[in-house]
Amino acid sequence: MTDFETLAVTQDGPVATVTLNRPDKANAMNMKMWDEIGDAFRWADAEPT
């Protein structure tokens, strides 16, 4: 699984969970997070399960 700076991504069987992980910034979204969300969705789409 890919490591993300602003997200926590887990997979349980066919379900991927993407969690915002910037508690020091009250999970405020920044451009890095938006980029990583796209990366996380592309990663999940490419997973065979």
Number of helices: 1
Q: Please give the number of β-strands.
A: 2
Q: Main β-sheet: number of strands, strand sense, barrel status?
A: 2 strands, antiparallel
Percent of residues in helices: 25-40%
Strand content range: 15-25%
Structural class estimated from helices and strands: alpha+beta
Radius of gyration: 11 Å
With strands numbered from the N-terminus, the spatial order across the biggest sheet is 1-2
| Unreliable stretches covering 5 or more consecutive residues | none
Mean pLDDT: 95
State the shape: elongated
Quickly count the domains.
1
Order of helices and strands: EEH
Note the gap between the termini. Answer: 13 Å
Walk me through this protein's architecture.
By secondary structure, this protein is an alpha+beta fold. It has one domain (7-46). It contains 1 helix and 2 strands, in the order ββα. A two-stranded antiparallel ribbon has the order 1-2. A hairpin with a 2-residue loop joins strand 1 and strand 2. The longest helix has 16 residues, at 31-46.
